Amino acid sequence: MHAMQYEITLPADYDMDIIRRRVATKGHLLDDFPGLGLKAYLIRERADGSPVNQYAPFYLWTAPEGMNAFLWGPGFQGIVQDFGRPEVQHWTGLSYEEGSAAAAAAAPRTMTRRRVRTDGNEKPADTVGRALEEHRSQAGAEGVVAAALAVDPRHWELLHVTFWAGDAPRPAGGEVYRVLHLSAPERHRLPRGRQW
User: Considering 52, 118, 153, 164, which has the largest number of Cβ atoms within 10 A of its Cβ?
Assistant: First the structure.
């Protein structure tokens, strides 16, 4: 599993309905994209208390071939054409879990993201072990549709992502996004649990 996200920060007075219309008309185009576990079309808005207006799609890929096909294909080129080429953040997957609300929720309404720099004095295995325990606990919380844990070993940063059926609790040191659409053609192929 590979996690990927790019953030397009928009002006403070930007009409976010433009993004809503974009997702409403184009979101379905990845509903059957090979290698895509899921793509959450995410926004944050100043009107909701965010410090920025932002369009920030988040992806979980089942295989790097799918991710590469998207990045080098027409889908990502549309983003580049309309907004310029954003920095694409990516993390290698550590764990994925379906939550207690997975069966009941047609699609999540919100997503939380928390990035944590690891302690450089601690063994990576110990850091990841503790993060896995936290991840399993979070995945079992009421209202959780799914949760993913990933790591960027270049910067030794852990990524905690949780999808919620309703409004998400604001994580300490993290962000809350609204999910406008979820494309999940191969969600069933995302490996459950620890990924090594």
Answer: 164
Strands 144-152 and 157-164: antiparallel
Rg (CA), the chain: 16
Distance CA 98, CA 103 (A): 9
40: how many CB neighbours lie within 10 A of its CB?
25
Say which amino acid occupies 192.
R
pTM exceeds cut of 0.85: yes
Q: How far apart are CA 36 and CA 61, in angstroms?
A: 5
Residues in the chain: 196
In degrees, to the nearest 5, what angle opens at C-alpha 11 toward C-alphas 10 and 17? Answer: 65
Pairing state between β 58-61 and 193-194 = unpaired
- DSSP assignment of 134-176, as one string? HHHHHHTSTTEEEEEEEEETTTTEEEEEEEESSPPPPPTTEEE
pLDDT of residue 75: 85
Residues 108, 40 contacting (CB under 8 angstroms): yes
Mean pLDDT by 10 residues, the chain (196 residues): 98 97 96 97 95 98 95 93 96 96 87 93 92 95 96 95 93 92 96 92
Q: How far is CA 24 from each of CA 18, 34, 138, 169, rounded to the nearest angstrom?
A: 10, 21, 30, 26
Domain boundaries, given as residue ranges, for the chain: 2-189
CATH architecture group of domain 2-189: 2-Layer Sandwich (3.30)
